[in-house]
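User: I need a structural model of UDP-N-acetylglucosamine 3-dehydrogenase from Oceaniferula spumae for a docking pre-check later this week. Nothing fancy, just the predicted structure tokens so I can convert them on my end. Input:
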Amino acid sequence: MDLRAGVAGAGAMGRNHARVFSLLEGVELAAVYDQDKKRAADVAAEFGGIAVDSLDAFAEVVDAATVAVPTVAHRSVGCELMEKGVDVLMEKPIADTLDDATALIETSQKHGRILQVGHIERFNPVMRELEDRLKEARFIEAHRLSPFPNRSIDIGVVLDLMIHDLEIILHLVRSPIVSVDAVGVAVMTAREDIANARIRFENGCVANVTASRISPERMRKIRVFQGDCYLSLDYQEQSAGMYRMGKEGVEKVEVNVEKDEPLKRELASFVECSKKGKAPEVSGQQGAAALDLALDITNRITSSFNK
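Assistant: Understood. Predicted structure tokens for UDP-N-acetylglucosamine 3-dehydrogenase:
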């Protein structure tokens, strides 16, 4: 039997999720919900399913759903759906406060529902290549740059962009944080539009992370240095290289990456978890840990604005 999938929130992100759900085997895009009824109707007309005008009606016809509503509504929408028996893929960040993130996690546990968080880079094909070759990271450098967006300007660049790399770094290092230094500048908005953070871990690893939403070009890169080599990944190009010492100096070893759409992989994994009751690759707890670090960095930056 096909899994009945739905999308709550029919903006640009929700529309993209509806598109991919409509393409997955073993999945029926059953419903689209949005407070803007015309927007929900337009997405449903394009990709399938019905447009509904309430969460009650939505929960009656779906088994699993992407929640792509504004972050401030993640807790209310996510908890209501899980209470009604729906598995949830919550777009990142999991919430805008740790209290809300905790409420989502506790609701998923109480009702036995899947709660996956949409940290999409974990499903980028280059990540698999990195994970296969990673022994112990000693230094990590990440850059995530973007032109100025027309969305998400109610939050700063840390919660908008940097949080992707923070979640990945926590996943790769898996050691307690001992210190965080952060700087940022508000340029186009009232919140930080460019930011840098240096994170030190108990095991000695250091991560240097930069994010900007006022760059003239787009960049999504991470380099991971370990004892015998370093790995360089480009999320955007889905390309990777490994550099190590050879007989004639530093040599580059090409890494073959089988390119694929990360969102397709993410939603296929979510569907499998929902069908089989498997734990998601990016759990609510992992999403909350990334949020905790992102909020810490944000608070350190914003406190400097008031000095």
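Before docking, keep this in mind: The mean pLDDT is 94.
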